[in-house]
Amino acid sequence: MAEIEDGEVRVLRPERLVSWSRAAAVLGRDPKTLSNWCDEIDVPVVRTPGGHLSTYVSWVNDVLMSARPGQAGDIAEVTSRWWTAHFPQLAREAA
């Protein structure tokens, strides 16, 4: 959860990050697929000081929980709900 004050984003509850490659492995996808999702649906991504990509554990969990047996979840819908729940002031509509 975060709030915006005077144009600055302040995190109210710290979110754990997971590396891009680990997130991809947990989701059963190639890291390039996650990068494509970033371009298409605004997946939450954090670039570390070393230049590596990470994402939020809570987003990965939400994606996993959206899947049903034999049917993948709707990544755009999950991502849109994630932005609204975690950063309501920055919430965006997934493309």
Explain what the structure shows.
This protein is 43% helix and 18% strand. The chain has a single domain, classed as Orthogonal Bundle (Multidrug-efflux Transporter Regulator, Chain: A, Domain 2), CATH 1.10.1660. Strand 4 and strand 5 form a beta hairpin. The mean pLDDT is 83. Helix 3 crosses helix 4. The protein has 95 residues and is of the alpha+beta class. The strands form two sheets. Strands 3-5-4 form a three-stranded antiparallel β-sheet. The protein is built from four helices and five strands.
Number of helices: 4
Describe the main β-sheet briefly: 3 strands, antiparallel
Order of helices and strands: EEEHHEEHH
Q: What's the β-strand tally?
A: 5
Features:
single chain, 95 residues, alpha+beta, Multidrug-efflux Transporter Regulator, Chain: A, Domain 2, three-stranded antiparallel beta sheet, 43% helix
In brief:
The protein has about 100 residues and is an alpha+beta fold. About 45% of the residues lie in helices and about 20% in strands. The longest helix is centred in the C-terminal third of the chain and has 12 residues, at about 75-85.
Question: What is the topology?
Answer:
Blueprint: E1 2-5, E2 8-11, E3 17-19, H1 20-27, H2 31-41, E4 46-47, E5 53-56, H3 57-66, H4 75-86
Antiparallel strand pairs: 1-2, 3-5, 4-5
Helix pairs in contact: 3-4
